Amino acid sequence: MLARQRQEVILEEIRRTGAVQVHALVARLGVSDMTIRRDLDALAKRGLVEKVYGGATSVVGRPAQDGAGEPRSVRALAEKEAIAAHAARLIRPGTAIGVSAGSATWTFARFLEDVPDLTVVTNSIRVADVLRTGGRGDRTVVLTGGVRTPSDSLVGPVAVRTLRSLHLDMVFLGVHGMAEGPGFTTPNINESETERALVEAGRKLVVLADRGKWGVVGISTVAALDEADVLVTDDGLPPEAVEVLRDRVGELVIVETVAAELPELAEAEA
User: Fold this and answer.
1) Beta-carbon contacts of residue 224 (< 8 Å; ≥ 6 apart)
2) CB count, 10 Å around CB of 158?
3) Tally: H helices and E strands in the chain
4) % of the chain beyond a pLDDT of 70
5) Confidence (pTM)
6) Of the candidates 104, 199, 105, 101, which has an alpha carbon nearest to the alpha carbon of residue 155?
C-alpha cells in the first residue's frame, strides 16, 4: 500500500472516531511501527492531525473538514500546496499583501518564508501564527482585530474599519465556492463583509481555489469572477469551468498537481 493510501485511511479513521493509536494502525494496515509514525509525522507537518503520545487526534479546535465541507484528504492538500507554491512566486520583495482566512490561504502562508521585506495584513489568526513562527526580522504581520469566529478568523466592524483604511499591493483570497453567476462566495454572512473589505483594499486580487470549489455556491458573494486579476487553480478543473473562467477572470493559471505530490505521498511501502 502506498503512503498516500495509508494516510487517507488514517485521516478517515480520525474523522470517524476522533483519534488513532499507532499499535491499532500497525495491526490494521500490516506495516511497521516506524512506517505508521512516519505517516503521522507527514500528516502533522501539514496540519491535518495533532500528534499525541501513542497516536494522533484531530487538530484541536478545527474540524476534520474545512469551511467548505470538503474532506481534507492528502490529495486535496497536494492540490492546495501546488496552488500555494505558484501563488507565492507572484509576490515581489518589499510589497504589502492581504491574506484572507481559510485552509487554502493557511497553506499559502507556509510558502512565504523566502519572500524578503514583506508586510502581511490578515484577518486569520492561523495565518498570522504561521508567519510569526518564521522568525524573519524583515517581515511585518498585521492582524485586523475584530470578533473571533470558530474558524479563527476575525470579522465585524473593527476588522472592516481596519481594512478600509489600508492600501495593499495584492490580496490573496481563499474561497468557499466559485460559479459563473454568483462568482466567488462564502457560506458565512458575518465573514463576507470583512472579505469584501479585504478585496477592496488591494490593487490586485489573486484567488486561490482548487477544483472542488467549482460549482459550489455559498450564501454571500465576496467578489465577481471578473474582479479576479489572477485565479490559481489545479489541473483537475472541468473543461467547461476552464472555458468560463478563461473568459471571465483576468488570468487563469492552472498548476499541475500530479508532479507536485510530495515524496511521502509517492513512497511505496517497504
Assistant:
1) 183, 184
2) 15
3) 10, 15
4) 87
5) 0.72
6) 101
